[in-house]
Amino acid sequence: MADGLRGRRTVADGLRTVVRALVHAVLSGTALLAVATVASVLGPTLALDLVTPPVAAWWTVFTAVVVQAVPFLLLGTAVSAAIGAFVPERVLRRLLPRSPALAVPVAGLAGAVLPGCECASVPVAGSLMRRGVAPAAALAFLLSAPAVNPVVLVATSLAFPGRPEMVLARLLASLGTAVAMGWLWARFGKEKWLTPPRRAGGPHPATGARAFLAGLQHDFLHAGGFLVLGAAAAATFNIAVPRALLDPFTGSPWLSVLLLALLAVVLCVCSEADAFVAASLSAFPATARLVFMVVGPMVDLKLFALQAGTFGRAFAVRFASVTWVVAVGAGVLTGWWLL
After folding, report:
1. Burial class (CB in 10 A: 0-12, 13-18, 19+), 190
2. Taking a C-beta distance cutoff of 8 angstroms, is the pair 116, 68 a contact?
3. What is the C-alpha to C-alpha distance for residues 325 and 167, in angstroms, rounded to an integer?
4. Long-range own/partner contacts, residues 156-164 (CB < 8 A, 24 or more apart)
5. pLDDT of 48-60, one tens digit each?
6. Is the pTM of this model over 0.90?
């Protein structure tokens, strides 16, 4: 009887801890969004009064990127903490094939179930690695989750009404890039390039509700700092490069592809919104706009900063560079075939 009572109390304490963690996470995320929103409204006005219009423009872009990304970052860190605290390693090992060659496409397809942007995929991929998933499979999931999930595909169909081929092209090019990068890492990746993500608490972290709360706080604060750095870099580019310099590139198919592939890196548009940005670039060919949507969720400044902070700078430099090349190639080939 006493053992049963203690067991019920333990379960009740665990549930209370989880509820408190979720409430704290939602409140902290809401507060951060409120502060960022107020800053985005008042910041440009104060900058115009106190400094210069370029500073106001910088502040507007910076806060827009942060406000857009924070909800999905919070979602990703919550999923990451839940995986680390509640999902045993044996479950993940049973879900994924033992062979990396088979685990990579399975993980790439699994990315379709997470309705988040690239900010959410980095902490989840880190948690998967901590739970024993092969890095190649976790990296395939990292790239596919923000690019092929249902929210992104629906947004693309709304941005390009009457053009289902654009949705199909984005799905195929993005999934192909994710799987190709997973296979490339499985074949050529080296352990010394990747700093294994660690959670506070040592090599054998605790599990359960308290571990969930600790993981949520650690991952959100850690990833949030690098998100701010990436947003600042994107805002700086937006005000430093005159738009008049971009006009000559619209007339050349190859130059337009390269330009939009580079813009996708520096503009840091969330994957749920980048289709509307691509649709607005009507002066560019369809293939160039497809490349913009394929590259953006996989290689941009804030994602690079998040990867560097989670897996190490040496990894981020190599992985982002190769991913950019593969994504551009996949976008061009798919656009040539379908568009």
Report:
1. exposed
2. no
3. 21
4. 156/275, 156/293, 158/275, 158/276, 159/275, 159/276, 159/278, 159/279, 160/275, 160/279
5. 444 566 777 777 7
6. no
